[in-house]
Amino acid sequence: MASTSSTNSSSFSKRLLGKVALVTGGASGIGESIVRSFVKHGAKVCVADIQDDVARHLCEALLDDVGSTSFIHCDVTIEDDVKRAVDHAVAEFGTLDIMVNNAGRTDPPRARTDICGLDLSSFDGVFDVNVRGVFAGMKHAARVMIPAKKGVIVSICSVSGVVGGVGSHAYTGSKHAVVGLTRSVAAELGRHGVRVNCVSPYGVPTKMSLSPLIARHGGSGISDEDVIARHRRMHASNAVLQGVELAVEDVANAVVFLSSDEARYVSGENLMVDGGFTSVNNSFRLFG
């Protein structure tokens, strides 16, 4: 009897057992953590990324895990790539239950981000990935999910999608757009049983967030390790919730929740994983 109870408990812990997911930008950073968490919870995962070798290595590393993984090259700024990625997931695993629009970018290293000096081609590049790429993912996931009358779409947003002044104009505008698209698409797809949400984390130390800072200090005599340490201290000092450092796993856990049946009546939501950062007026904290 004890053995049966243990087995049931183990099965219950796999919140995505039998689900099929596609994660764009899934080879590294937050995306990699999402892929690993999905596999841990029993999902079959298609990793879509432009980092071919890194993505293949990740899939090979997960071969012995409970879930199954597959890789396809995908540049989210090319709609045909996104279409092929969705079709690949369906061909490999039979369906698509979860679409995670995680691929994103910031302004190029050393690019001017002040409004007078900002190159509009750089602005367009950020929007191509962060907005157009997300919408392409929503569009082609919906193509599969609408006939099935079920499905979940989760996009990775940011605190910059809620407040101004913590990111560049291009990045902030793009993440505000993701929130708007999430609500708009949720309004349409709800009648088909498809849930659409996004997750907005506070600053997470990933390659994407750190590379512009490292490039900016290149040649200044400051080591990459010192830049990363400064980045972490800066985020820690400005955080509202103290004693906890946000990690990629925390973001992945939020995505797992929204993708699971535990969130079966949650749609059109922007789930903040920011330790309360956007719920207060930080300019007044000096007087607290």
Automatic annotation (TrEMBL):
One of its GO terms (cellular component) is cytosol. One of its GO terms (molecular function) is xanthoxin dehydrogenase (NAD+) activity. The keyword NAD applies. Keywords: NAD. One of its GO terms (biological process) is abscisic acid biosynthetic process. InterPro entries: NAD(P)-bd_dom_sf, Sc_DH/Rdtase_CS, SDR_fam. Transmembrane segments: none annotated. Coiled coil: none annotated. Pfam families: adh_short_C2 (PF13561). Belongs to the short-chain dehydrogenases/reductases (SDR) family. This is Xanthoxin dehydrogenase. It comes from Erythranthe guttata (Yellow monkey flower). The lineage of its organism: Eukaryota, Viridiplantae, Streptophyta, Embryophyta, Tracheophyta.
